[in-house]
Amino acid sequence: MKILVVLLTLSAVHCAANKEFVDDSIVWRVADDRPIDKPEVRKYLANKYFADVLVFRRVTRALALRGHRPAMNTNALDEVPDSSWFTNRIGLYEFSATEVARGGTTAPGPRPPLVITSGKLGSGKPGFAAKDATGRSFVIKFDPPENPEIQTATNAVVNRLLWAAGYNVPSDYVFHFKPADVSVEHGAMVEGKFGKKELLTLDAVHDMLSLVVPTADGRIRATASESLKGVPVGGFSNLGTRPDDPNDVIEHEHRRELRGLRALAAWLGHTDMKEDNTLDMYVGAPGKGYLVHYFVDFDKALGARQVETQRWEDGWEHVWDWERNTLNVVTLGLWKRPWEDTKLTVWPSIGAFSADPFSPEHWREAYPYFPFIEARAPDLFWGAKIVMRFRREHIAAAVGAGQFSDPDAAAYLVETLVRRRDMIGREWLDGVTPIDYFGFRDGQLCGTDLVVRYGLAPAGVVEVLKGRGNKVQTRIPVGRYGEVCIDAPKHARYTVLRLRTVRDGKRRPPMQVHLRGGPKPRVLGVIRTEEWE
Q1: CB-hemisphere CA count at 13 Å for 363?
Q2: What is d(CA 21, CA 25) in angstroms, rounded to the nearest whole number?
Q3: Which of 447, 443, 453, 398 lies closest to 422 in space, CA to CA?
Q4: pLDDT in tens, 468-510
């Protein structure tokens, strides 16, 4: 079965080995939802995970002197087809601000009263599982008392933006309720201070709620995350494939949607990238279902993790950062690290999230995430392209879902996300030849320079290269809105056009457009950079 899915996935995908594309329909949907037996639950062992990603796997991968491979699940246009991992959304059609605000939610938030079915009141962040008045199940979590709204708002905002980008996320809500709206199911258990299970009481719940800063009208503000459809079988690894899932045929570090996620994670300050913030759900009847892959728990993004851990280097360095710790030692601690200029905003609900200082190139997640480490220019271009599709009204709609009580805090967050968005675009769109959205018009092949299209640069020139060398055949100025058109070949033979942009005197790496000309011309495929040739 794995072989069958591989063939379906890659038959019309670019083949860098022979530098040709199949003259066939573009693959926009991968059949990775074929029926499988329910996999075993993948257990998350925190100590083992951190030892692997911080030390053992980093060392063994470095010693192996592995070469870099292109993403293995792109189609002929170097895009990501829909799958159980990712669904093309924003950019596929005209996306409204209302759709972004709603996100993946299909119903209103929970309706009080709540009946608690289990809880965690000991070490770590307290919270509980509950059913609402309609019988729907939710996980309920709260803000830290030092920073009211920061985690509930952050979770809702990032949830909406990642859903619109194309990722699978739960239905998450900012939710308000009164302590009197809560009861405890008979026999409900709670995890105590030392991980020991004990009977949950209503007094214990009220003791926990007393630690939450109430709103002005005395209600409790929380995140309510609705239970996902299906049976949970644990998170997914950031390396390799899941052995008991025959549909899982692409090593995770070589999936474009996981590599390109680095651009979105940097934009949103989502540093808490680790396995227990992912979840595989087995959807369907036993033996007839398949896995759907989710990202969950976004409440430490947008700088919230910085505030919670008081680790101001978050977003700049891994928790244990071999490269930057070594640099600090070599310079005897005299190297001024960029994060040393980090300052708290005036809003406890925002913390230190800012566009200054911020560097997309130097941004790092807290724990090394191997798809991010494997990401190269075409992957980051893909991710940055998605980031740039979010207009200001989209961003404002997502921020509105966070229900900030201070409109100035919300306005600041919108402006910061807009600024960081544009910095992402300048860094990773303009790191390659950013001509995209190809089509034919009046005998010409036309595309769009995305850097000019999004107003990140005023102009540019596209050079058409002759043959396989770097001799310039023709130069075409980029239009005001990024448009550029090239005479298409009149013959119907397989043709490769090599293009590169020139801006501010700098030439970007060449890209390739493979096409057939003639009376019915068509683009067969795109190679974003020639480094894999």
Answers
A1: 30
A2: 11
A3: 453
A4: 888 999 999 999 999 999 999 989 899 999 999 999 999 999 9
Residue at 321: amino acid letter: D
Environment class of residue 319 by beta-carbon count within 10 Å: exposed (0-12), middle (13-18) or buried (19+)?
Answer: middle
Cβ(351)–Cβ(344) under 8 Å?
yes
Q: What's the residue count for the chain?
A: 533
The arithmetic mean of pLDDT across residues 363-380, rounded, is: 95
Question: Which of 77, 90, 95, 82 minimizes the C-alpha distance to 438?
Answer: 77
Rounded Cα gap, residues 162 and 62, in angstroms? 31
At 272-288, the pLDDT tens digits run: 999 999 999 999 999 99
Is residue 123's pLDDT more than 70? no
What local confidence, expressed as pLDDT, does residue 336 receive?
A: 75
Rg of the chain, C-alpha, whole Å: 25
How far from chain centre, in Å, is Cα 372?
A: 11
Those residues whose C-beta lies under 8 Å from the C-beta of residue 320, and which sit 6 or more positions away, are 54, 55
Classify 415 as helix, strand or coil.
helix
Q: Reduced to 3 states, what is the DSSP secondary structure of residue 162? A: helix
Ramachandran class of 53: left when φ > 0, alpha when ψ lies in -120 to 50, beta otherwise: alpha
Closest CA to 432 of 532, 513, 523, 511: 511
b/e per residue 221-230 (b: at least 16 CB within 10 A): bbbbbbebeb
Q: Which position has the token pair 């693959």?
A: 27
Distance in angstroms between the alpha carbons of the first and the last residue of the chain = 30
**Cα 487 from Cα 340, distance rounded (Å):** 52
Q: Which residue has the higher pLDDT, 56 or 453?
A: 453
Check pLDDT > 80 for residue 194: no
The dihedral region occupied by 360, where left means phi > 0, alpha psi between -120 and 50, and beta the remainder, is: alpha
Between CA 16 and CA 351 the distance in angstroms is 46
The Cα-based distances of 142 to 125, 131, 149, 238, 532 in angstroms read: 8, 17, 9, 28, 47
Q: Which pLDDT band, with edges at 50, 70 and 90, does 19 fall under?
A: confident
φ/ψ region of 501 (left if φ > 0, alpha if ψ in -120 to 50, else beta) reads: beta
Give pLDDT tens digits for 92-119.
888 999 999 999 998 999 999 999 999 8
C-alpha–C-alpha distance, residues 301 and 207, integer Å: 28
DSSP state of 277: G
**Dist. CA 279–CA 137, nearest whole Å:** 17
- Going by C-beta distance under 8 Å and a sequence separation of 6 or more, which residues neighbour residue 72? 10, 250, 251, 254, 255
Residue 429 vs residues 354, 432, 505: alpha-carbon distances, Å:
21, 6, 17
Cβ atoms of 431 and 377 closer than 8 Å: yes
Residue 158 in this model has a pLDDT that exceeds 90:
yes
pLDDT at 72 > cutoff 80: yes
Give me 475's structure tokens: 């130069």
